[in-house]
Amino acid sequence: MRILGIEGTAWAASAAVFETDDPDALRVGTDRTPDPSADHIFIESNPYQPDSGGIHPREAAEHMGSAIPEVVEVALGHAAERHDGDGPVVDAVAFSRGPGLGPCLRIVGTAARSVAQTLDVPLVGVNHMVAHLEIGRYQSGFESPVCLNASGANAHLLGYHNGRYRVLGETMDTGVGNAIDKFTRHVGWKHPGGPKVEAAAKDGEYVDLPYVVKGMDFSFSGIMSAAKDEADAGTPVEDISAGLQETIFGMLTEVAERALSLTGTDELVLGGGVGNNARLREMLAEMCDQRGAKFHAPEPRFLGDNAGMIALCGARMFAAGDTLPVEDSAVDPNFRPDQVDVTWRGTDES
Ligand code: ATP
Questions:
Q1: What are the pLDDT digits (tens) for 316-333?
Q2: Residues 233 and 244 in one domain
Q3: Where are the beta strands (DSSP E) in the chain?
Q4: CA distance 42 to 133
Q5: Which residue from 96, 106, 101, 102 is spatially nearest to 129, judged by alpha carbons?
Q6: What is the overall mean pLDDT for the chain?
Q7: Domain that holds residue 308
Q8: Which atom of ligand 1 is nearest to 278's Cα?
Q9: How far does the centroid of ligand 1 lie from the alpha carbon of residue 233, in Å?
Q10: Residue 100 region, left (φ>0) first, then alpha (ψ -120 to 50), else beta?
């Protein structure tokens, strides 16, 4: 089985090919489990980089308009090189249906529909946040992990129960990466700010910032205002960066631990671009270690937005017969992970 994946929810115009000789392993209820070392994932990406400020939806969409056809062409060329039989070079076209920026998603949806119709293969509509989780589950081999998605526009904990990925806890305002990026824009650093905060924090002394966890949910807006106030008052950015990391990642780690405890699960996977941060991974790994849980962070190419995770999740869905008629394939900028029927796992697990 070979699946084309297309991603373009915000900044990464990306196309990928997922190939496996063992599609049965992608489903539950068989005696097979996936072997990532035997499967093949090829990714071609072209990131949008704003000249100043944060991601501008219209500019990002313009980028998608020119970059998506290019990355899809490269990925399809790669698929063609590996294709040795009759018929289409891929068995299905999977695309990010949401959540994301509407103008970008519409370009991705149009591209996916046109490729699927040209090749006469089915369409598969993938929830981008579920894909972040599924790539971690696939790579780790974990059965039913809790997932911390720490990305630009999102921050939440997901756990599987009775046919759906339930949102166990989430941000009450901005996504975690976007919150960090807002602070870095305030101090004049170019987008994306997360890696710069990580570098600066290495030379910083911890500064106290508001720690806001309410039950299973958390909030970043007060921390960001306080961090900006500190910068305006002349506190070194290195110190604020250290305070930001310890505070924000401490909050995420606390809620991740509570999610493990609540579900009784002993497996945690990480998803999203903020997962590139070594301090976040260290805190999560230490917490898991202390409670005897297993922790997995996907390799960097699968953490931030990428079409590899869309192709893999699309392959699971396609193997379960979960395809999408073109007339029902509208994108959804607010597509929540708990709206997805997890057809590839069945409803008999918890
Ligand atoms: P979503 O998956 O919600 O659509 P997105 O497209 O905005 O999100 P991702 O690609 O998952 O985001 O991640 C991008 C974010 O990750 C940016 O906000 C960036 O600042 C942040 N980031 C990247 N590297 C690091 C790092 N080393 N430390 C902290 N944050 C980081």
A1: 999 999 999 999 999 999
A2: yes
A3: 2-7, 12-19, 40-47, 92-98, 123-127, 146-150, 155-161, 164-170, 213-214, 217-218, 267-271, 294-296
A4: 19
A5: 96
A6: 96
A7: 2-134+302-339
A8: 27
A9: 27
A10: left
As for ligand 1, residues whose beta carbon falls within 6 Å of it are: 9-11, 100, 128, 151-154, 175, 177-178, 180-181, 192-195, 198, 272-274, 276-277, 304-305
* Distance from Cα 304 to the centre of ligand 1, integer Å: 6
274 within a domain of the structure (yes/no): yes
Report CA(55)–ligand 1 centroid distance (Å).
12
Residues 314, 191 within the same domain: no
Taking the centre of ligand 1 as the mean of its atom positions, its distance from the CA of residue 85, in whole angstroms, is: 39
Ligand 1, atom 12: closest residue by C-alpha: 152
Q: Whose CA is nearest to atom 13 of ligand 1?
A: 273
Arithmetic mean of pLDDT, 74-102 = 96
Q: Is residue 99 part of a domain?
A: yes
Structural domains counted in the chain: 2
- Nearest ligand 1 atom to alpha carbon 306: 10
H/E element holding 312?
helix 307-319
DSSP-H helix ranges across 218-277:
221-232, 237-263
- In 3D space, the residue among 6, 44, 36, 31 whose CA is nearest the CA of residue 19 turns out to be 36
Closest atom of ligand 1 relative to the 276 alpha carbon: 27
Check whether residue 70 and residue 166 sit in a common domain. Answer: no
177 CA distance to ligand 1 middle (Å): 5
Residue 72 pLDDT greater than 90, yes or no: yes
Residue 139 lies in a domain: no
Please tell me the predicted confidence (pLDDT) of residue 349.
47
